[in-house]
Amino acid sequence: MTLTQTLIQGGIIKQLKMPSYFYQGLFATQFLSQSDTIIFDDVYQDMRGIAKYVLPSVVSKANRNKSFDVKAFTPAYLKEKDAIEAFSPVLQGRMAGEQIGGSMSPEQRAQAIRAYQLRMHRWKVENRIEQMCAEALKTGKLAISGDQYGNVTVDFNRDAALTVATLGAQKWNSAGVNPLDSIATYRDKAYEVGNAVIDTLIMGKGAFASFYKYMADKDRSHLFKNDFRGSNLTMNLLHAGDVRGVERVAQFTSTDGATLEIYVDNRFYTDVDGTAKRYVEDNAVIGLDSTAFVGVQAFGAIKDHDGMQAVRMFHKEFRTDEPSVDYLLTQSAPLPIVLTPNKTFLLANVNV
User: Taking the CB of residue 229, how many other CB atoms lie within 10 A of it?
Assistant: First the structure.
């Protein structure tokens, strides 16, 4: 039994509490591949076709069955690795928070370090999966690059009309522009090409600021539902800028009378180069048919002599004897898959 297996049986991994993730919640189904390659069918069936007219005496033509694309992809590995060195001063002295002079044995400190490292590994892997889900939802594709992996893009074939770089003369921060007009335009486009009924908008902070500036006018504020953050409409909307995660900030009535929910995503993640990046860019707006969108979190099997199994994350520990070092390694091979790409749209920058 390995050290890590002992940790798992001892409940350390099970006790690691992970936060709930917004975009992972939209990719609600999990698929664990039995190989390192993930295979999925790209199928779209538009059920809006109508039957054709013919004379009773005419021999009808058989329908031509639409083919589907089979896609196979070998995802990049996510790897997080830490070391516990036998000669580390931390093991022989004291850990942060431990009383002066020390109250733990070196073995107890090593176990505490393992628990911390496992927790950080799982946080980083789950944060990356959240970023991948956000990117796939937002752009309809997933760009992956890494050390010795190259640059690969998985395209889920969202219709090009549903990705808009700029709004030009209809940009939201221009005087007299009604944001509801561009929202209506691309809701109609999503319905046209994907039979989608867009009922949710996910906005960056800047996009919502422009939207609110227009909608807060006394002649239009009645379009907002006023109980989304309490009882005072004006103060609640003003304080929507205090969002520090992902939060539903409003409901409003669109030009066609439909009720849409607005979420603001004001979160950052720290990229591998150390820079802070937003899950949703400041001026971006994502449209989503929340009832029809289907996303899957797929995971390739991990190729490891200690594992060789289909798992979301694989943890292992191994040792080198000279110098004496224990290494803790976490591996995962995720690929979020968008099965209904035309149930979304992206306005990449509504203020340009």
Answer: 18
Euclidean distance between CA atoms 25 and 202, whole angstroms: 14
Side chain identity at residue 318, one-letter code: F
Query: What confidence score (pLDDT) does residue 190 get?
Result: 97
Cβ neighbours for 186, distance < 8 A, ≥ 6 positions apart:
162, 164, 198, 287, 345, 347
Spatial contact of 278 and 127, defined as CB atoms under 8 Å apart: no
Instruction: Read off the pLDDT of each residue in 333-351 and give the average, rounded to a whole number.
Output: 96
Cα torsion 265, 271, 274, 275: sign: negative
Reply yes or no on whether the pLDDT at 29 is more than 80.
yes
Q: Take residue 141 and report the two structure tokens written for it.
A: 């594709």
The structure tokens listed for 101 are 């002079």
Residues 241-270: b if buried by 16+ CB within 10 A, e if exposed: eebeebbebbebebeeeeebbbbbbbbeee
Average confidence (pLDDT) over 35-50: 72
Q: Is the confidence at residue 235, as pLDDT, over 80? A: no
- What is the Cα–Cα distance from 204 to 201, expressed in whole angstroms? 10
Round to whole Å and give the CA distance between 198 and 150.
35
Question: pLDDT by residue (tens digit) across 155-184?
Answer: 999 999 999 999 999 999 999 899 999 999
Distance CA 100, CA 143 (A): 49
C-alpha to C-alpha distance for 134 and 6, rounded to whole angstroms: 35
Identify whether 336 is preceded by a cis peptide bond (ω within 30 of 0): no
Given pLDDT bands bounded at 50, 70 and 90, which one contains residue 3? very low
CA-to-CA dists, residue 52 to 13, 57, 83, angstroms: 60, 14, 69
Query: Residue 140 in contact with residue 156, Cβ under 8 Å?
Result: yes
Q: Residue 89, preceding bond cis, omega within 30 degrees? A: no
Q: What are the angstrom distances between the C-alpha of 126 and each of 35, 185, 322?
A: 21, 35, 33
pTM given for the model: 0.84
Residue linked to tokens 């911390």: 116
* C-alpha angle 134-193-49 in degrees, rounded to nearest 5: 135
Mean pLDDT, rounded, for 283-288: 98
d(CA 348, CA 211) in angstroms, rounded, equals 15
Check residues 220 and 300 and name the one with the higher pLDDT: 300
Question: How many angstroms from the chain centroid is the CA of residue 172?
Answer: 26
